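Many introductory courses stop at the sequence. We go one step further.
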Amino acid sequence: MQDPGIDEDHELQALTIRSRGTPSAVPVSFSEFLVDVPPNQEREVDDLARHPPGVSTPVLAQPDIDVYCLDCRTLSRFRPVAREIPLVTPEARKDIIVEYECVRCRTARKIYSLRVRTPVKPDGRAWCLKYGEEPAYQPRAAPRLRRILGSEFEMFLQGRQSEVLGLGVGAFTYYRRVVEAQRTRIVEQFIKVAHKLGADATVVSSLEAAKDESQFSSALEALQGGIPPSLLFEGQNPLRLLYDTLSEGIHKQTDEQCLEAAHDVRVVLTALAERLDALTADERELHEAVTRLSKRLSARRKAK
C-alpha cells in the first residue's frame, strides 16, 4: 500500500494560539480539528455533521485522517470504526467518543473525546471542544525535517508541541538544543549542495572548515568564505539567523517573546529543510531508483 499524502507543516490559522483555551474565530475542517488542534481547545468546525440519505437526524461526519501510527512507526491513514453517532440531544451539548483504526496494520487505534455544541447548523457547522486524545496529541511537522534533523527530530516535535500550546520558554529551549545538536549535519548538507552546484573552491573549503569546528560561533566564522547563494535567505546566512536568535538568553525574555522567537526559528529551520531537500532531490531520487532496480535484478537472478 502506498503511503497516504502527507501534508507539509503549515501555518494553520486554527493554531495561532497565544494561550490555552482561547478559541479561534476561523472555522476549520473536521479533519484539521482532529489532527491539528490540541486538547482543551474549542473551534467552529465547518463540516462536523452530515445528513445520511433519507434521514433527518444529523450524524457526526467522520473523515479519514492521516496521523502517526505507533505500531507502524510511520504516518498512516486512519479510518473511523464503522458506526454512526447521532447529534440530536435535548441538551445544549453532546459528549462523544470517536474511534479510528489504522488501515495499514488494522490494530492501532486513535481515540478522541469531544463535546459538540448542539443543535448543529443545517450546513453541518458546529462548535466542538476537544477534551483529549489517545495516543497523546502530537503536532505535525514537515517530513523533510526528519531527513535534516535525524536523531533530533523527536526533540523538534517536543518544541513544536510546546509552541502550539503557547509555552514559549519550552519551545525556545527545545529548538535551541535541536539546532545546536544538528549544526554539523546541516553544514554537511550545505557541502552536498555546494558540490552539486559546482561552487567555488573557497566556498567548499569554508564549509569543510565550518563542519570541523566544535563551537557554533567558530563555525560561523569559518563560513565567512561564503555559502552557495541558493542557500541564502534574503541575502542572509540561515545558520547565522538561527544562531543569533537562539544565543539570546531566555532569562532576558518574556514567555511571549520566547514564543515569537521560537516561531521564527521553526519557520526558518523548516524553510531551510525544504530548500536543501529541493536542491538535493535529483541525487536522492537517482539513488532510490538505482536501489530499486538493483533489488529487482537481484530478485530475478535468485528466482532463476
